[in-house]
């Protein structure tokens, strides 16, 4: 049928019609809210490059979790700022580590059962050098070791799962980490804990503000020897395939907006739950535009999340989780 018989504007005339034919929907339950836990009590320290995002002591994080639950948000993703850092990332796998304590506090609190508690598994917040694995130096050269890092990552995942995390999410990008973590969890009787692998994680400038939030900027070099080259979509498919073979239950794509094509390709190809992480820089650049009055905050926020959903992400990790849940409510 051609114009004038076909008029696509007919279904756009009223909000009721638009709602009826809407192909993609956002819901608070599909949003995951990241929290940065720090030592102390009553601490609520705003991240300068991320307005509205805070380092929270555990007592404050519990309050924040309660408000997330009240808004119908699906879950939390936990990161930690340890009191001390060292070469072995002890704070990541210590039973009394900051995130381990935070998980226990969240799980002891009543009324938070609707929140899935996801623990990020990585070493970069806990190593003195800020890399995601063990560093060996020979002369002026350094190497982020793969296989020796796996043991520490597996120990970290085990202690987070033992503390009560509903899901562990390795974000380090070492080869073989999913298999090593799965085996460690199973050996420890933690067969029921799923692994959400950051399978497709690109070396991205958009992680900049996070490194302020998590105090995890590498002290030398960069992460390009372990995170993926932004130019490579086929390699991302191989990373995902490999992590699924190793036993990942679900996968996380990251960053989101600059990599919507990669999310879409993964959705077409793999029949596992897929989430996407709208990372710190994506949040900060929108906030910067909001602060100048250059973009309408509500509409731009929801459109950014909708684009990620439409590309194929079933759930979205986003610093906008609370604002979006309020806007949707
Ligand atoms: C840890 C990790 C990072 C992010 C999530 N997990 C930082 C990095 O890889 O440098 C980034 C999240 C964000 O930017 O919001 N490896």
Task: Walk me through this protein's architecture.
A hairpin with a 2-residue loop joins strand 2 and strand 3 (50-56). The protein has helices at residues 15-20, 58-70, 90-93, 98-108, 147-163, 177-187, 208-213, 233-245, 260-269, 280-291, 297-311, 321-328; strands spanning 31-37, 44-47, 50-56, 75-80, 116-121, 135-138, 141-144, 167-170, 196-201, 250-254, 274-278, 315-318. The mean pLDDT is 97. It contains 12 helices and 12 strands. It has a domain at 26-252: TIM Barrel, CATH 3.20.20. Strands 1, 2, 3, 4, 5, 8, 9, 10, 11 and 12 form a 10-stranded mixed beta sheet that branches. Strands 6-7 form a two-stranded antiparallel sheet. It has 329 residues and is α/β, with parallel strands linked by helices. Bound molecules: ligand PBG.
């Amino acid at each position: 049928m051609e114009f004038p018989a076909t008029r696509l504007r007919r279904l756009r005339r009223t909000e009721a019609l638009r709602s009826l034919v809407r192909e993609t929907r956002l819901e608070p339950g599909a949003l995951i809210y990241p929290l940065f836990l720090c030592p102390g009590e009553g601490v609520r320290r705003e991240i300068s490059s991320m307005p509205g995002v805070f380092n929270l002591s555990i007592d404050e994080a519990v309050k924040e979790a309660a408000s997330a639950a009240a808004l119908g948000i699906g879950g939390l993703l936990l990161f930690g700022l340890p009191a001390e850092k060292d070469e072995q990332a002890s704070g990541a796998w210590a039973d009394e580590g900051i995130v381990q304590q935070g998980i226990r506090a969240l799980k002891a609190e009543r009324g938070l059962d609707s929140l899935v508690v996801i623990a990020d598994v990585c070493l970069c917040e806990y190593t003195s050098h800020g890399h995601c694995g063990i560093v060996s130096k020979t002369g002026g050269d350094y190497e982020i070791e793969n296989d020796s890092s796996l043991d520490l990552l597996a120990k970290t995942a085990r202690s987070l799962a033992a503390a009560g995390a509903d899901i562990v999410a390795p974000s380090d990008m070492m080869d073989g980490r999913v298999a090593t973590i799965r085996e460690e969890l199973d050996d420890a009787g933690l067969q029921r804990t799923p692994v959400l692998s950051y399978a497709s994680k690109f070396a991205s400038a958009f992680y900049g503000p996070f490194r302020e939030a998590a105090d995890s900027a590498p002290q030398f070099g960069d992460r390009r020897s372990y995170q993926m080259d932004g130019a490579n979509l086929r390699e991302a498919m191989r990373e995902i395939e490999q992590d699924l073979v190793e036993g990942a239950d679900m996968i996380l794509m990251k960053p989101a907006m600059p990599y919507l094509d990669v999310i879409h390709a993964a959705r077409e190809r793999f029949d596992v739950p897929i989430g996407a992480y709208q990372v710190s820089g994506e949040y900060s650049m929108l906030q910067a535009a909001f602060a100048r009055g250059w973009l309408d905050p509500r509409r731009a926020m929801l459109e950014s999340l909708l684009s990620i959903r439409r590309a194929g992400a079933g759930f979205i990790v986003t610093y906008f989780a609370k604002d979006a849940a309020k806007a949707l409510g």
